[in-house]
Amino acid sequence: MKKIIEQIKNSRNILILSHKNPDGDAVGSSLALALALKTLGKEVSCFSVSGIPEVFNFLPGVDFFRKGADFMNYDLVVLLDCATFSRTGIEDIQRVAASFDRLIIVDHHPKTEVEESAESEYWIDEKKSSTAVMIYELLIEMGVNISKDVATCLLTGIFTDTGGFQHSNTDESSMRAAAELMKKGPRIEKISRNMFSGKSVPAIKLWGKALSRIENSSNTGMAVSYVTMEDIEEAGAKEEDLSGLISVINTVSDAKFSLLLTEYDKNKIKGSLRSEDYKGMDVSRLARGLGGGGHKLASGFEMEGDIGRSIAKISNMVLRLKDKTNKEG
Ligand SMILES: [Mn+2]
Asked: Which of the listed residues 150, 168, 195 is the one where a domain comes to its end?
């Protein structure tokens, strides 16, 4: 952590990047760090290729994302909640990245690929519940005063990545950090309302459609549902309205894991995978097999094709993985 702090102290213009389709942890961590570094007199920009979903509009500092970034003239790039430039989804990032000499990575996903630059420092710890809890620890170590705004952003990150302190990654350090952050004044009810409730009627109708389609296979142990572009349009909803739906699909008690496929473009499908600790399934293995990645209990991937064929393909892969695991004993 010392070297990370040194790099930050020695930089003036800092760009904070995170993964595409940013979640509460990616946005919360980015904004918290941006707000904190601003008070240290740094010039800071945040950038997300897919923009910032409206649900995050309640977060202080959200304008850091709005100003955009030119990818030039930064003397430090910070990559949060992911470890490679490809996860940012920025087209042509490799060419741009060639100009990034100093790079810091803070992430809590299982370490697979890690980006490197001339001077890169990384802190990757998959035991951490969220990137936000890591940024909290970093700011404390740096001796930065944590304002109410910074606390709101960090608490949002911890709160969303632990599923409102319900997932098995909810550990003592997250609760402790959350308690300290709450002393600064953020309202958890407001975070909860913005992140998990406060849904529109079209969104709920879309959820209803997806939920009515759930199929549970005892063969694969998979509870699966899907949403097409047509469904989203018909409901008058937006793709971001699907955030959180997978957690409901994941409540099917006799499934080993759950899958939600979302058609986000013609023949382009996004998959979300979830499981629970006690179910003994590592969904990141499946996600990696499909070219994606993530955590043991929460992963994702993208694929091409139609929904029906994709489900068949994934089911086959699950059975093959099961076979392999059985053979490995
Ligand atoms: Mn995260």
From this structure: 195
* C-alpha radius of gyration, the chain, whole number: 20
Residue with tokens 């793709």: 239
Pairing of strands 293-294, 268-275: unpaired
Q: What is the pLDDT of residues 278-323, one digit of tens each?
A: 999 999 999 999 999 888 999 999 999 999 999 999 999 999 988 8
DSSP three-state, residue 47: strand
Pick the closest to residue 219 from 311, 292, 284 (CA basis): 311
Tell me the residue range of the domain where 190 lies.
2-195
What residues are neighbours of ligand 1 (ion), with CB under 5 Å? 25, 81, 130-131, 161
- Element (DSSP H or E) covering residue 262: strand 257-265
Residues 277 and 184 in one domain: no
CATH number of the domain at 145, please: 3.90.1640.10
Q: Give the global pTM.
A: 0.87
267/288 same-domain check? yes
Within 13 Å of residue 231, how many CA atoms lie on the same side as its CB?
23
Distance CA 209, CA 79 (A): 36
Compute, in angstroms, the gap from residue 312 CA to the centroid of ligand 1: 29
Tokens of 208: 């209803």
State in Å: Cα 329 to ligand 1 middle.
32
**Sheet holding 119-124: strands in order across?**
43-47, 13-18, 76-80, 102-107, 119-124
**What domain count does the chain have?**
2
**How many angstroms separate the alpha carbon of residue 81 from the centre of ligand 1?**
5
